[in-house]
Amino acid sequence: MAMKAPRGTADVLPKDANLWRFVESTAAETARAFGYEEIRTPVFEHTELFQRGVGDTTDVVQKEMYTFNDKGDRSITLRPEGTASAARAYIEHAMHALPQPVKLYYCGACYRYEKPQAGRLREFHQFGIEAYGSEDPALDAEIIAVASTIFKNLGCTGLTLNINSIGCPECRKKYNEALISYLSSHSETLCETCNTRLTKNPMRVLDCKSPICKEIAAGAPHILDYICDDCRDHFEAVKSYLTVMGIPFSIDPTIVRGLDYYTRTVFEFVSTQIGAQGTVCGGGRYDGLLEELGGNPTPGMGFAMGIERIILVLRSMGLVKEEKNSPRLFVASIGQTAAALALCQKLRENGIYAMCDVAGRSLKAQMKNADREGAAYSLVLGEDEVKSGEAQLKNMETGEKETVSLSDIPALIARL
Question: How far apart are CA 81 and CA 186, in angstroms?
Fold first, then answer.
């Protein structure tokens, strides 16, 4: 029986790789335009990092992490998200000594054991940014602007930006009291997991995926009615900055985000074109995370966007075009494979995509292959061409031919 990829994973085939590179490079270039620099963290970490950083009452930690003991009997977890790893790196490498805020971006695979469906895989890929060292609401607005600009540069339209404030730990105490009071009256209907969360972290109930719990959550009190004056002023400033930058938004008081480390501003970009998994980007502020991980009290904020979901949006909008990477020159040969390889190597060293036959085909088959690959030009190397140092260069589109010196080919193809 032929081997297959594990359930919940997907191969990115050559026909799709150009699209992936386009999304990843566009996101990275946009982030750099805002002053963010790349960071690369390990794909696995000590399990405690995610237990402390993501939160042991979240679905991610309770149900979804890929955790195992290594050969040294240490508990290791494949990263389920990127923020905790970036925060760990900030602390470990004493980035607090750098000019603040420190602005970072990353792109890589994450792992969660979930039911696979469109836009949700067990191995998925995220592009994210994190900024540490500023509690100014201007940073919140800038980070949202980074995401908005990425989508604009990708050509994605029809996305809705929803924002909310979930306050600080102090004002959340009053909200949690009201929320527990409301949810307790529905405890017989809530799922088992949410009944456990009810006393430990009631806001997690609002993020439950159960249809019944979602229906109950829809009638829950809104946190915006409970946030303190400082958090309200912060949220008002974020809204005003977004307005000044021309970034439209809607206030969604039900957004709480699924991870424990969020405070104050939270946001999502949502598409209606890709089904149930419509959130293509989510993020917010997490001013207590670094201290929770053993660092100094340091405000932070960031977001993550799903590469697979962005690609679904691009496809749904008809923005994906098949782009074949075609050679500029196809060198066919008649018993002169060595000469063809040598000429192609010179072209490639000059940054020119050149191709020659490496499968022992006949000349007729080689020319069919040149046409199939979409080569812009072709030439044939036989014994006479190698001896004279000249060959017929053919324009594959017009059929026109001209005699050229083999030594001039790299410079000539570069000009054409």
Answer: 32
